[in-house]
Amino acid sequence: MTDIDTILFNKYLDSANKTDPIKYVGKVSKVQGLLIESKGPQAIIGEICRIVAPKGRGIIRAEVVGLKDETVQLMAYEETDGIEIGDRVIALGSRLEVPVSDRLLGRVLDALGNPIDDKGEIASEFMYPALTSPPDPLTRRRVTERIITGVRAIDGLLAVGKGQRLGIFAGSGVGKSTLLGMIARNTTADVNVVALIGERGREVNDFIENDLGPEGLARSVLVVTPSNSPPLARLRGAYVATAVAEYFRDQGKDVMLLFDSVTRFARAMREIGLASGEPPAQRGYPPSMFDSMPKLLERSGTSDKGSITGFYTILVDGDDMDEPVADTVRGILDGHIVLSRDLAQGYHYPAIDILDSISRLAPSVTGEATKKAAGIIRRNMAAYAKAEDLINVGAYHHGSNPEIDEAIAKHGYIEKFLIQDVDEPSSLEETLEGLSAITGVNIPQEEMTDNNEIQAVKRPRVKETKSNEIIKPANIEDNTMALNSVAALFSSMTN
């Protein structure tokens, strides 16, 4: 008997030992929209039930979402075709759990944690609850170490710490999934957990093959619930992905949780809440959505063992940053990255609007010189943005304002620094060298190195000559030399 056979045998033996021989059975009494009502069985909120529908799918898995007198309210994880009055409802006596082990790496799971990639069963003796509480605040370690994403705009100007949680706010078609794919491939995290919640079915293979790639998939776990899934499946897919991330965190690993998207999760909550009779609050969202959001998002972060660094995408309706979901999430997370449609239309990718974005923990994970250089870049960008209309119509005259003059001189180099191809990873050293060259700030070597630094796939470089040599920050004597240094840096990075 192989190790996997032994694990599977022990798993089923354990399940048999836990099985209650007494079945609690009810009967379907009503089906209306998403909601299924039954007389019995005796069950608790969140308990998994089986609906036996001989004229439909046979066995339909459902979850108890409400109790009213003797009526049990359920919602199905699958389509409800074929359910009729009188079908048996059997309570299984357990809540949703996920099989976990290192064999999850490279696998694609559904909303219940079952593999859907035709690579065989996940052989695991251990189960993690999908619904659980966040770590005790007093046991959480402080966020003091940075994690590398391989994206210059983030690592240079919006530094992220291990265990930090950031939101990526954008409208549709601005590059959220592509940015997540870049982070998944290039991050220094030990494990990626990718939650594709309510996204288009077409995008799943696109994300795996184009955005994630073989190297990213090898150290990733994907949880997929496409947009055509029932709302309960979309909802529980989010909890299953978080539970998988918690398992790896409890093994002492640094986990990157890439969640796309929180808005689809919130809409699933809205569908379930309204179907079960909750009153609508803001824009139709029920009170349960605003209660569940922090319970989900607070589960990521640090613990006393490892960390979960979370990137959560928020689909902003009509580019309105004050709509309920965006406003709620922004107040919970540790920073936000805003993607600009104007930048995307100008083929500026990743389309990160630096001035509208912030990482609240960046000062805690970056050195003094790096913070100074990032501040100079932001001031230059702010000065240029303030005078951009005057510059574009030719109304600004050189020499009128030294800050604007400097911003104009450096604008092109800052743009080249921020624009990055999908298949162009950037190490921390390369990123900070770029900041140093643009600003003239001497960033010491200890701030440029990291024990977990990304091992970027270097592009072939031309043999360096005096014309393309990168001038080190310590040798920069004036602004002209700094700009020449930037030109040389980007020439060497793109050749």
Q: What is the rounded Rg?
A: 26 Å
Major β-sheet profile: 9 strands, mixed
Number of helices: 15
Secondary structure tally: strands? 19
Low-confidence stretches: 451-478
> Could you say which overall geometry the principal axes of the C-alpha atoms support?
elongated
Strand content: 15-25%
Q: How would you state the average pLDDT, rounded? A: 87
Strand pairing plus helix content: what structural class? alpha/beta
Rounded to the nearest angstrom, the distance between the terminal CA atoms is 54 Å
- State the assembly state of the protein chains: single chain
- The proportion of residues forming helix, as a percent range, comes to 25-40%
What does this 3D model show about the protein?
There is one protein chain. The chain is α/β, with parallel strands linked by helices and 495 residues long. The chain is built from 15 helices and 19 strands. The protein has helices at 3-18, 152-157, 176-186, 201-217, 231-250, 262-275, 287-297, 324-332, 341-345, 362-365, 368-392, 402-418, 428-439, 445-448, 479-494, and strands spanning 24-32, 35-39, 47-53, 58-68, 71-76, 88-95, 97-100, 107-109, 126-129, 146-147, 160-161, 165-170, 191-197, 220-225, 254-260, 301-302, 307-315, 335-338, 358-359. Strands 8, 12, 13, 14, 15, 16, 17, 18 and 19 form a 9-stranded mixed beta sheet that branches. A 6-stranded antiparallel barrel has the order 1-2-5-4-3-6. A two-stranded antiparallel sheet has the order 7-9. A hairpin with a 2-residue loop joins strand 1 (24-32) and strand 2. Helix 6 (262-275) runs antiparallel to helix 7, helix 12 (402-418) packs parallel to helix 15 and helix 13 runs antiparallel to helix 15. The protein starts with a helix and ends with a helix. The model is unreliable at 451-478 (pLDDT under 50).
